[in-house]
Write a structure and sequence with these properties.
mainly alpha
Amino acid sequence: MAKSNIVVRYLVATLGLVLVALGVALSLKSNLGTAPVSCPPAVLNLKWTSISFGTFTWMMHLFFISLQMVMRRKVLDIHYLLQLLAAFVFGYLCDACIWLLKDVGITSYLMKIVLILASVLLTAIGIRLEVISKAWILAGDKVVDVFSEVTGIKFSNAKIGEDIILVALSAAFAWICFGSPFGNGDHVVIREGTLILAALTGLCMKLTDPLVDKLFKPMLHE
């Protein structure tokens, strides 16, 4: 693979991470709930506000990488290092996007739904850019892929299982800390936005994937 092609792949993958991070920030800003994989760091950030959402995000990804090592019974692998780098980059991209939106005022329910739908769109495009670039690897998705590989369970079913587990654990922790499974009262982590993001992102990708492929695949195969 030519050096220039590798650079293009990582630039495209990084754009994908930026879009997904912006999608996460928009969902948090909506205060209607965030995507299942972002629920744990969001709840933990509400409990320990001195630690950023992005920091909790890459910490969670370290846990996912550890699970992969256990399932594969393999400690040293270049793919783990790539996931580790991606975790740090993605975590602090999330923090940057959250900071950019901190002064944006959203009051109406309609605008909150618009933010959730924008989050769905950006997440769908960002994930596809990550997939076709074959560069950065996010551990949240890779751990599902490894689990599917080890157990023989379909990836889609394993992904649904991961979403349910993450939301359930987040709701339980929120209940213990704040007396509510949804958040701390002022900030919502789990609500209809969580369901919308879980249900519509995959469907949206069926519409956006062909366009993303048409625009970006030619430059990736030069």
